[in-house]
Amino acid sequence: MQNKSAGWNVDPLPSWNDGTTKQSIVSFVKKITDKSHAGYVPREERIATFDNDGTLWSEQPFYFQFGPFVMDRIKALAPKHPEWKTTQPFKAVIEDDRQALAASGKKGLEEIVMATHAGMTTAEFEQIVKDWIATAKHPRFKRLYTDMVFQPMLELLAYLRANGFKTFIVSGGSIGFMRPWVEGVYGIPPEQVVGSSIKIKFEMCNGKPVLVRLPELDFFNDKAGKPVGIHKFIGRRPIAAFGNSDGDLQMLQWTAAGDGPSLMVYIHHTDGEREWAYDRKSHIGRLDKGLDEANAKGWTVVDMKKDWKIIYPFELKK
Amino acid sequence: MQNKSAGWNVDPLPSWNDGTTKQSIVSFVKKITDKSHAGYVPREERIATFDNDGTLWSEQPFYFQFGPFVMDRIKALAPKHPEWKTTQPFKAVIEDDRQALAASGKKGLEEIVMATHAGMTTAEFEQIVKDWIATAKHPRFKRLYTDMVFQPMLELLAYLRANGFKTFIVSGGSIGFMRPWVEGVYGIPPEQVVGSSIKIKFEMCNGKPVLVRLPELDFFNDKAGKPVGIHKFIGRRPIAAFGNSDGDLQMLQWTAAGDGPSLMVYIHHTDGEREWAYDRKSHIGRLDKGLDEANAKGWTVVDMKKDWKIIYPFELKK
Q: Considering only CB atoms, which chain B residues are within 8 Å of A193?
């Protein structure tokens, strides 16, 4: 079937239902790639940034990196740390005591993140992530976490790249956790991954240089940190940005403030059956101020239930 | 004329004299792009990193950013800072008192760098750099600083890119100073510039988001910082790295420690007539330990006087 509005012979976004949402994306791409149009943007300036958790893959019941990955790592490391059996927040993780874990708060989460993300070389951590991502499964769908990426967003990434965009991840998750697998899953190379990071240190170890991960935050790439991360890593303002929560609001504001045309898109989690439904009051991925601003400014809001034919790639194989 | 050894109909490195130096570069590129060769490297892993000062352009008598740029800015800002007339190190800069400036040491340099690099938005600083780089001239050559890039290195950048490499700058200079002009001069886009940085902050100013530059060091991308910067910004190990000083040694060590083939190159400043001659005892761009290690490990050392037919592009137009 032809999608005449997009000028393609084959619909580049087959998992997107026709309608105003899809149309706003396709119109933008048509406009900025049309040399005869006043809104034309040269290829080198076609920067698109994507949040990861909740935008490119699911994030419920808790961010996959800071929930299941960290918990699995604490359990794997526990035999070497007998003291954890009697020390919070580690005890809570080992005993699956969610109440005690929640009670340990942000400080508790930081402790278990540092215990699982630091103290090894970058190469060792990369292998740990690769092993986990290749085997761990989501409790609800019994699928690999990399199966829980959004098929419509994979199509969108490919569509933008086919139109000369450079696609970047700009995530609150860490660069060390994302880079080992995002190239294979999203087609986004490691050097186009902007994220949070801990400090690392160059050392000579038996005459071989290594980079050692230190238990100290280097950069937190969320909220007002996202435009900072974009400036630091990319050095250009995006012309298109995609997020799903208030943590992405400043990235979208920064994108909107450019001189030329820009596209700001929020993914709104509205499908409690096929995925999850949450927004203004969610404990993670909260979309409240962002939704108000999107409505006030006329940004594109994707209604997952209404706009997406399927959510996950595995639905195609049913 | 055919350069048969390179398999090209046209010599891709015409400003390089034939010899072992040029041969070592061409052989490496042939090997890693030849699918039938055991050393073949897939396109996405062809990362090449280049130091900037002294490697892609000259750096004498003092790094262009931290010497002339900073001095010119202090003088331009002086009318707004009457107190500088009586305060070191600013007084020394205004009066061109090199002795007093040298006496202010590293702390003095930091003060004048922060006074000239912070306290404005990223867009304002970008414009300041663009204006300066378009007009300021080098005292010896009476040329724009961007005319003082090395013609053989421009050819090398183009040659590597034509062979599927992604070329990155990895410099002790700051990303904010390099990004406004390196794309036009080297063909390296802003998002492939790794360098030092000061902290920046996202702010809303009259309803418009801005990024404000703060007088605080964020990251120093030199010596052991270079592999850290490479890991942070690129997330892959280079297979080829180019530097000219001990400040690049760890980057070359990190590159050499990869599993596959790698090319480590030092530019040795040996031409006191056409450029400058300096190495083991220079106050800037010192090449001492690096030269020993290059000799011991068999890395490629470019002898500028012997290996380069011309230094600067403007010599072509003589």
A: 235
Q: How far apart are CA A242 and CA A264, in angstroms?
A: 6
Instruction: Give me the residues paired with residue A201 across strands.
Output: A212
Structure ipTM: 0.94
A297 touches chain B (CB under 8 A): no
Average per-residue pLDDT for chain B: 95
Compute the C-alpha angle A292/A296/A299, nearest 5°. Answer: 90
Taking Cα atoms as reference points, which of B49, B249, B12 lies closest to residue B165?
Answer: B49
pLDDT digits (tens, 9 = 90+) for B76-118: 999 999 999 999 999 999 999 989 988 999 999 999 999 999 9
**B200 CA to chain A: closest CA distance, Å?**
7
Q: CB distance from B202 to chain A under 8 Å?
A: yes
Judge whether A314 and A138 are in contact, CB under 8 Å: no
Asked whether the whole model's pTM tops 0.80, one would answer: yes
Nearest chain B Cα distance for residue A228, angstroms: 7
Chain B partners of A209 at a C-beta cutoff of 8 Å? 227, 250, 253-254, 257
Q: Which amino acid is at B205?
A: C
- Cβ contacts of residue A225 below 8 Å, gap of 6+? A172, A196, A219, B202
Contact A245, A268 (CB under 8 A): no
Name the stretches of chain B with pLDDT < 70: 1-8, 318
Joined tokens for residue B201: 């902050």
For residue B226, the distance in angstroms to the closest alpha carbon of chain A comes to 9
* Contact check, Cβ <8 Å, B218/A224: no
Q: Are strands B166-174 and B47-50 parallel, antiparallel or unpaired?
A: parallel
Tokens of A255: 């994108």
- pLDDT single digits (tens) A175-229: 999 999 999 999 999 999 999 999 999 999 999 999 999 999 999 999 999 999 9
Q: Examine the pLDDT at A244 and tell me if it is beyond 80.
A: yes
Counting DSSP H helices and E strands in chain A, the numbers are 12, 7
Judge whether B233 is closer than 8 Å to chain A, CB to CB.
yes
Q: Which of A46, A202, A217 to mutate to test the interface with B (most CBs of B within 10 A)?
A: A202
